[in-house]
């Protein structure tokens, strides 16, 4: 145990954020560089090394949290990063982007603020990169087997790295022009600078993983041809079919899906554009959807100089604290969150539904009409007399995703079976109905968290390795049927 009295002697401290007025003028990460390391040993000491560490149940990767907390407390950074990498290929991703279900399950959180597990995690891995402890793990021998991984998001990258280290020759196919999937083009730079992706890709290249960008399997390359080239295929294309809003005025210019808007902003940071083709500058922006993608749109609009930003959510505003009966510990509660983007301004409106959009004579959106809603007999129903309109010159739809892309031909060309939710069906080994073809991440699970995507990639890699060699020593942290610990 790190410090038997740590949780008594020290309160919870989190990463310090840069002032709003400063950070909205750039795209750098919102936190003050280096602000965590001076406090992280004390924060790690708050871990009680529980007899039954429920943080393990909260984390689908099975991260060895009490162990690397102890090493961080003792400032044994090399041992800490080894324990961290034992279960997680990319802790710098999860340490920045995961909503930390591990913290919701922290035993200390029963009656105190939980351990800052995410902050400890990101401190360990950032220190490891700084000291050179993160090095390529080149396999001792090659198996002679080949694997194609379709998609380079967190699930695809995790599967590719595991299979490469197992000795297989792995090629990752990505339809975008750069590797990273939603990590690259869906996550704004202020949440995770892309240098973190770039150095992981270089590590993977040094280990032997190959990358093929600008190739969309199903359109640019037939799935049947790909399967002939490789001994196994892992599909990790994500859940990219965005939920739409079929209301009058949807066709007006200025109404975009979030994943039309966010990638263009990221491409400016990559140097592809001087200014984004879709910009919030000087406009009244409305974001429809109250989740993380919506918050990303809010923060992006702030940095582009929006005149105003309003975020709409059809559900009621969540509670600010865990309800002991409805959302008991150690479940992952749905709580009211104030992200860094929300700290920067804008208005959040709950329990409202968009009825239609109104445009000008040139076909550009100008107004959004909405009404309040309430639950009546279990259904969200408009409240009479609450209709109103707000200015909207740019609207982004961030209402979630409904499954993998079915229009590019990939699922049909492989002959894949789908489950009742439209995701790619798989068995206990993450195998599809097609021999040698596996599926990992949101394409099989449905829209989920980054930590689940990495766990899926690791588990699917074990299934593919066992298919190729008859046995596998790779870890499989989850089963396809496992779900978050929620009520």
From TrEMBL:
Pathway participation: Amino-acid biosynthesis
What keywords are annotated for this sequence in UniProt? Amino-acid biosynthesis, Glutamate biosynthesis, Oxidoreductase
Q: Give the highest taxon in the source lineage.
A: Bacteria
Q: Which residue intervals define the domain 4Fe-4S ferredoxin-type in the entry?
A: 38-69
User: What PROSITE patterns does this protein map onto?
Assistant: 4FE4S_FER_2 (PS51379)
Q: Which residues cross the membrane?
A: none
Q: Per its UniProt record, what PANTHER family does this chain match?
A: GLUTAMATE SYNTHASE [NADPH] SMALL CHAIN (PTHR43100)
What is this protein's name?
A: Glutamate synthase subunit beta
Supply the source organism for this entry.
Streptomyces ziwulingensis
